[in-house]
Design goal:
Number of helices: 1
CATH topology: Lipoxygenase-1
Mean pLDDT: 86
Structural class: mainly beta
Order of helices and strands: EEEEEEEEEEEEEEH
Number of strands: 14
Number of domains: 1
Shape: globular
Length: 190
């Protein structure tokens, strides 16, 4: 059963009956707003980029994005860059092997940014979702609503809480074409 997350909501990643998830996928999907023209409507390409910043006690420990598809320890992997948003479902995904994330890493903050600088006013049907890789079951979904003049979004955070992992929906607009541009906003959620 999928939990439809609201901004600020948190959920546990413990399985019913005990035990935690081993491998999860954070999927990001989006479509471009269709533009009306004299010749009908057309869809433009929008290059949104999913990134994840790994933090150890509020300090950047590693990052995974289109320019570095795997974390140095191999526990986090980006599946590749979608330059257009074309297609249904997840346009970009980041897979996290929770059992392999180094113990000093306390949180992973997921972001999305518009590499070409288009604003979220030009994006529709945007979402991020967390999927159990073992079963393929969608666990949680956070749907972006309302567009906006921003070019980036701090989406969500996976974090350690004692011996378990939790997920929190953030949904904070930001400005930036890359995660580097957004780092001050991202670090506020470490």
């Amino acid at each position: 059963m999928t939990v439809s997350l609201q901004k600020g909501q948190r959920i546990s990643l413990q399985k019913p009956g005990g035990g935690g998830l081993a491998v999860v996928r954070m999927g990001l999907g989006w479509d471009a707003v269709k533009k009306k023209s004299f010749f009908g409507s057309r869809e433009q390409d929008i290059d949104l980029d999913a990134s994840v910043v790994l933090f150890a006690d509020h300090q950047v420990a590693d990052v995974v994005y289109f320019g570095q598809l795997t974390s140095r320890d191999g526990s986090v992997r980006h599946t590749g860059d979608n330059l257009t948003g074309a297609g249904d479902g997840d346009d970009e995904s980041i897979i996290v092997d929770l059992s392999r994330v180094p113990v000093h890493v306390t949180s992973l903050v997921f972001t999305v940014s518009s590499f070409q600088g288009q604003t979220f006013n030009e994006v529709q049907n945007a979402f991020c979702r967390l999927v159990d890789e073992a079963s393929g079951q969608e666990l949680a979904r956070y749907t972006l609503t309302g567009g906006g003049a921003h070019t980036g979004m701090v989406m969500s955070r996976l974090y350690r809480h004692g011996q378990e992992w939790k997920l929190g929906a953030i949904g904070e607009p930001s400005q930036g074409r890359t995660f580097q541009d957004m780092l001050p906003a991202i670090a506020a959620h470490a």
